[in-house]
Amino acid sequence: MENTRNTIKDNFTFTLKSTCLDENYHPSSQTRLTTNFANLARGANRQQNLRNALNMINNRFNALAHLDNPKGDRYRVELEIITVTMRIDDKDGVNDLPMIEVLKTNIFDHKTGRHIEGVAGNNFSSYVRDYDFSVLLIEYNKDKPEFTVPENFGDLHGKLYKCFVNSTTYKEYFKMSPIICLSVSSNKTYTRTEYQHPVLGFEYVQDQYSLTDEYFSKMGLKVRFFMPSNSVAPMAFYHSGDLLADYTDLGLISSISTMETFQKIYRPEIYNANSVAAKIYQPSLKHEDYSLTRVDYDREERSRLAVEQGKYAEQYFIKPYQDILEQWSANFAL
């Protein structure tokens, strides 16, 4: 996919680039190193890590897409990393700043020999989000007796995201709005309902909204929680349209298989637990009865890099362009 641009203001431009995520993938200089796939693609075992993760995705996909698939090998999930940069033209020159990365799924049907449209979104990465949660929120609450959230927290990030997904560039390449699939919150309680979707599985509802839910609502996203067949915990599906009507079964399966695999690697205490979530369920990263995957992952490094990359966003984006961003945000309307 060639780079394409969509002007959002005289001095703002989004650029979109696609990179294949396979066992030969190497993170680019514009990739957040805390991103799920980038974290796997480093170190001595990088290729085996990627190979194992991709095999897990394909096996899970075929297990869910079992109709007319007796050997469990009919489909292959192909992943694209969609990198979005933002160009700002100002008096000091032109700067391309890394903004967002998401995963796009594509499905290859070995039986028919054709590709099937998947879903964009899945994993979601953002430098501004790193800044908001790992820099701004921490500094704001330093020495405060109770945790509070700054006024207008997440407003800029939400508007940047909505601007991108409503741009002609996005609509040119993607037929459906994104689904962003995340882990459930470890400090909320979830209750299983009687509703069972044929692909997404049993729906859960939460006792109250989390800070992430509120942050994503500013991106125009609602959330529903489902535990697919043979999963052990529900996942959070953030979406802007109708989650149950806007996507094909295979598209939903591609998101489930991709993101459940990453969650098993990064949060095995929840998603690779040896027991299934009960009707009333509170996730815990302190849960000890779980299994590890054959994929190396350094959780402490990931947390440290989130702070470093949040400070990068502050240094090269938030502070230098504060006046421009505040003016654009104040006048932003879809």
What would the average pLDDT be, to the nearest integer? Answer: 88
Strand composition percent: 25-35%
- Sketch the major β-sheet: 11 strands, mixed
Q: What helical percentage do the residues reach?
A: 25-40%
What is the assembly state of the chains in this entry? Answer: single chain
Q: What overall geometry do the principal axes of the alpha carbons give?
A: globular
Order of helices and strands: EEHHEEEHHHEEEHEEHHEHH
How large is the count of helical segments? 10
**Poorly predicted tracts of residues:** 1-10
- Straight-line distance between termini: 27 Å
DSSP summary, beta strand count: 11
**Radius of gyration from the CA trace?**
20 Å
What's the structural domain tally?
1
Which class best fits the helix and strand makeup? Answer: alpha+beta
With strands numbered from the N-terminus, the spatial order across the biggest sheet is 1-2-3-4-5-6-10-9-8-7-11
InterPro entries: MesX
Organism: Flavobacterium akiainvivens
Protein name: DUF1852 domain-containing protein
Pfam families: MesX
What does this protein structure show overall?
The structure is a single chain. The protein is α+β, with helices and mostly antiparallel strands. It has one domain (4-295). Helix content is 34%, strand content 28%. The protein contains 10 helices and 11 strands. It has helices at 36-40, 46-64, 127-140, 155-165, 168-173, 211-217, 249-266, 268-271, 299-318, 322-331; strands spanning 4-9, 12-21, 75-90, 93-109, 114-126, 179-183, 190-197, 201-206, 222-227, 235-239, 280-281. It has an 11-stranded mixed beta sheet with strand order 1-2-3-4-5-6-10-9-8-7-11. The longest helix is centred in the last third of the chain and has 20 residues, at 299-318. The protein is globular and about 60 Å long. It starts with a strand and ends with a helix.
